[in-house]
Amino acid sequence: MEMKEIFGILSCLFLILAGIVYGFKFVKHRKNYLLGFEWLIVAFSATNLLIFLFTGWKVNYSISFFLDAFSRGFGIPIVAVLGLMAVSHNFKPSVFKDLVIFGITFASTFVLVLADFVQGPLPYFYLIMWSCYTLYLVYFTWQLLRAEESFQALLTALGAAAGLAIAVVYDFFPIPGDDDKMLFMIFALTTWGYTLIQLYYAYGALARAKAAPAAR
Prior knowledge:
Elements: H1 3-28, H2 33-55, H3 58-88, H4 95-114, H5 122-146, H6 150-172, H7 182-215
Helix pairs in contact: 1-2, 1-7, 2-3, 3-4, 3-5, 5-6, 6-7
């Protein structure tokens, strides 16, 4: 096994652990089901990717491919943003509304994956959606700065910039010589894992900052 393959497996394990640990933290400690279950979906996608890397089983690749499409198109740009709005805009939908949001976005993902007419513009759609998510993170970072959480703001901004770079490279600028996309996968999975962890702590920092005036 080559060194880059080892790092690829480690980055995949990192994303799985980040998704599971912080997904359950969002559910148990924050009662934020949008973020918690989206994080767990990312972990499940990465788990199937890891199984595919070891076994070559196509069914695991298909599951990972579908969930990757979900997260890139709707899971992160819509579901995660709505989840983060719990602390940026005090947006706290009911459990029923959470289920409706997941249902609509999953149904929309089937259209992305199966409909022929969207295949051509699909890379541009992914990039537009991720750019909108990044713009929201800019606002979220500004909220952290206003709350005097400059360290969390810096870490969130770094994750946002790295995530946008990954989104651009994903479909438009392949890494030269990276024919098996292993180098890209290492950078992408590591960046996404970092983001899942960082947003949990940024969320907590902003929640504490906004709760502090009310506690006085």
